[in-house]
Amino acid sequence: MNLRPHHFILWGLFIAGMFLMPELVGKGTLRTMIFACYLAMFAISWDILSGRTGYISFGHPFLIGIGAYTTGILTRRYGFPVEASIPIAVLVTMAGGLIVLLPALRIKGSYFALVTLAVMELMYQLVPVVRPDLTGGTRGISRLPALTRGAENGYYLAVGLMLAVALMAWLLMRTRVGTALWAIGMNEESVRGSGLSTTRLKSFAFLVSAGVAGMAGAFYAHYLGTITPRAFFDINVLFQIIVAVLIGGAGTIVGPIIGAFFMVFLLEWLRPYLPGQERFFVYGLIALVIYMYQPRGIMAIVEGAWTRLRGARS
Amino acid sequence: MTMALEVRNLVKRFGGLVATNDLSFDLAEGESLGLIGPNGAGKTTVFSQVMGELRQTSGSIALFGEEISSLSTAQRIARGVSRTYQVPRPFSDLDVRENIRVGLMPDSLRAMIFGAADRDREDELALSVGFTRQDLDRPASELSMGDLRKLEFARTLATGAKVLLLDEVFAGLTTGEIAMIAEVIQDLRHRGFTFLMVSHDLPAMEPLVDRAIAIERGTLLAQGAFADVLADEAVRASYLGVA
């Protein structure tokens, strides 16, 4: 997509609005927004691999969990400073993902998805029982050092990280690698037939995706202050990430952000009326309707409306 | 004379089925060779083996004197051979220019990230196969079959290959489009490109090839001048259905 002046204006307004938000809303809303920012980072991470190449990963909670557990173990068990533990967590996530999930990139379609799902489930079962002295078993690790004090600072950190991740992903996807990854999602054989090593391209996408997941997972763990297997290696985490991407718009940078905020706030708005698990049914229904109406998500609905508006004016 | 492609005793078996049966042929640099045979004769299987998409059971394939049997498809393309497919395989959400860009990409992550796309070259390739400037921003999903063939041809040229394998390059084209693609092929022949060509449109193929080989069930039936191959009794019996 070619950049036009209105794109810069919209991004400027969005960033200014995000940074003014603590002046406009209460602490409760800020905390909801912090969660939405982290979910947006997880969703962008998933989209770099799955939204572009079409290799649907069900193992992203595994990557997020490695990042979170690595920084948790290093800071709480070995006394590492967070300045060191978070970069190490990113590297460990990339290496762990490389060893476990990368061989799966050689298989295709539903088989890839099933292998990644199996890895996540394996992690969920193993973490509580293997070295519980390090992982804290089913109770996890608590009292992780906080990176910020107060909701406002936590919010600024989350927004800053989300914008940095979005910018990095946007810059990367504007290069020829972005075009090639997109092309793999459309026809992998043709990419190979054009003289490109698709295994190398997919591995690169996977590594970048894992790096972002590990980084976001590590920061999120310090924000929460607690890590438990259920909070990270859970199928609901996976569904939230995938639904955020699909209803926002896969294969875009803005889509996963819109999807994450839409989903998180929808659930919050439903809470007073449906305090139990039934609100997930309503949110699932709304996501389904959006997806059926426009499989390319809210982003495509907004773009379509914008195009019609411009057509009506001219 | 330098040989661009040397295929020796090529055999490909799928279980009990022999798709390529001890096939040997040469393709000189700058030459254009027609590969003909009835449906199911194994022509596309030969292409797939030359490109490394299928590994041969036995036999050898050399490109410009170098044995390429152990190389990946990407490595073979880097050494100068590329192909088109019977059914075009476009990147449907990408526009014409971006489709060609994929063919022009170097197989290096560093170069792909830090290098810029060569838009002039992309445009040049698109225009050379008959696209207009208005077509360049059209997504491939909106193109006709004829345009998709042109796009595939352009992307194959973009890889920089000098040996081009064209599989049913005229299928689905109008008379005008066939004439236009034929003109492009003739131009490339004059510029020294080497062709191995499969087509069921024999009248369209005849002026574009120096000679032909005919196969049936993967076995060589005849080779020589185009007219002589078509006049061969075995070829007429198998391919044209007349004795």
Automatic annotation (TrEMBL), chain A:
<dbReference type="InterPro" id="IPR043428">
    <property type="entry name" value="LivM-like"/>
</dbReference>
<feature type="transmembrane region" description="Helical">
    <location>
        <begin position="237"/>
        <end position="265"/>
    </location>
</feature>
<dbReference type="GO" id="GO:0005886">
    <property type="term" value="C:plasma membrane"/>
</dbReference>
<feature type="transmembrane region" description="Helical">
    <location>
        <begin position="111"/>
        <end position="134"/>
    </location>
</feature>
<keyword id="KW-0812">Transmembrane</keyword>
<feature type="transmembrane region" description="Helical">
    <location>
        <begin position="280"/>
        <end position="306"/>
    </location>
</feature>
<dbReference type="Pfam" id="PF02653">
    <property type="entry name" value="BPD_transp_2"/>
</dbReference>
<dbReference type="InterPro" id="IPR001851">
    <property type="entry name" value="ABC_transp_permease"/>
</dbReference>
<feature type="transmembrane region" description="Helical">
    <location>
        <begin position="204"/>
        <end position="225"/>
    </location>
</feature>
<feature type="transmembrane region" description="Helical">
    <location>
        <begin position="155"/>
        <end position="173"/>
    </location>
</feature>
<protein>
    <submittedName>
        <fullName>Branched-chain amino acid ABC transporter permease</fullName>
    </submittedName>
</protein>
<feature type="transmembrane region" description="Helical">
    <location>
        <begin position="32"/>
        <end position="49"/>
    </location>
</feature>
<dbReference type="GO" id="GO:0015658">
    <property type="term" value="F:branched-chain amino acid transmembrane transporter activity"/>
</dbReference>
<feature type="transmembrane region" description="Helical">
    <location>
        <begin position="86"/>
        <end position="105"/>
    </location>
</feature>
<feature type="transmembrane region" description="Helical">
    <location>
        <begin position="6"/>
        <end position="25"/>
    </location>
</feature>
<keyword id="KW-1133">Transmembrane helix</keyword>
<keyword id="KW-1003">Cell membrane</keyword>
<keyword id="KW-0472">Membrane</keyword>
<feature type="transmembrane region" description="Helical">
    <location>
        <begin position="55"/>
        <end position="74"/>
    </location>
</feature>
